[in-house]
Amino acid sequence: MLLALAAPALAGNGNTLYLVQDSPPGTTDGNNFLSDQTLANYSSIGSAWFPARQSGTGNSADITIKSDCSSLLAPEQCGQLTLVQDNTGHGLSGLVLHAFNLSSHNPNTATVTINGLGHADLQQLGGGNVATLNVDDGYGDISQAGLNNSATLTLASASTGSIVQTGSSNIASMTVNSVGSGGANLTQIGSNLRSGPIVVNTTSSVGISIVGNGSLLAVYN
């Protein structure tokens, strides 16, 4: 399924939107997806088995989900997003780049906001990826593999979240204002690892694990 440009998507309560965007080799423009679900409760985009996916170069996504579901419901019954962006390329060369996390294609960008007891699983593969995830009362995870990735995670209310980066020259930033049972974890594996500002203002736990060389970490309370 080829979608070069998707218009804003709106879904009703409890609906699930499935998305596949693929830019064939040689395409100069990337995929763009904009979805605002703030008028719907517990609507979802993608699933663990069938994630929303953008493949090719220069992908971008801007997604907002509002999930006013009851705390008595199971997490999978609340609004959620599962998104995979992959700019590692196609064919044999793409498989090799994917295997060694050495893609140099145009970057993927994703900006995601989860309001309410929802969940976001944001995954990026390739080079130069930029992920921004804001979570208010739910939980969200950013996973990046490749080179020169940048991840920013902001947690508020009783939110929980994590950043996991594998590769080289990755940078991660976190602002943790969560309370109650909230908390955050940062895991970086590779070389030339850096952190942007990590601002912690919480009564919850914050864990940081860095495995590699050339690490630089800055934490502010």
Features:
221 residues; mainly beta; 10-stranded parallel sheet; 8-stranded parallel sheet; 1 helix; 18 strands; 5% helix; flat; disordered N terminus
Q: What is the helical fraction, as a range of percent?
A: under 10%
Classification by helices and strands? mainly beta
How much beta, percentage-wise? over 45%
Number of helices: 1
What does this entry look like structurally?
- The protein has 221 residues and is mainly beta.
- The protein is 5% helix and 52% strand.
- Strands 1, 2, 4, 5, 7, 9, 11, 13, 15 and 17 form a 10-stranded parallel beta sheet that branches. Strands 3-6-8-10-12-14-16-18 form an 8-stranded parallel beta sheet, with no helix packed on it.
- The chain starts with 15 loop residues before the first strand and ends with a strand.
Task: Describe the SSE topology.
Layout: E1 16-17, E2 20-22, E3 32-37, E4 44-45, E5 52-55, E6 60-67, E7 80-86, H1 91-100, E8 109-116, E9 119-127, E10 130-136, E11 139-147, E12 150-156, E13 160-168, E14 171-176, E15 183-191, E16 194-200, E17 205-213, E18 219-220
Brief summary:
The chain has one helix at 91-100, and strands spanning 16-17, 20-22, 32-37, 44-45, 52-55, 60-67, 80-86, 109-116, 119-127, 130-136, 139-147, 150-156, 160-168, 171-176, 183-191, 194-200, 205-213, 219-220. The protein is mainly β and 221 residues long.
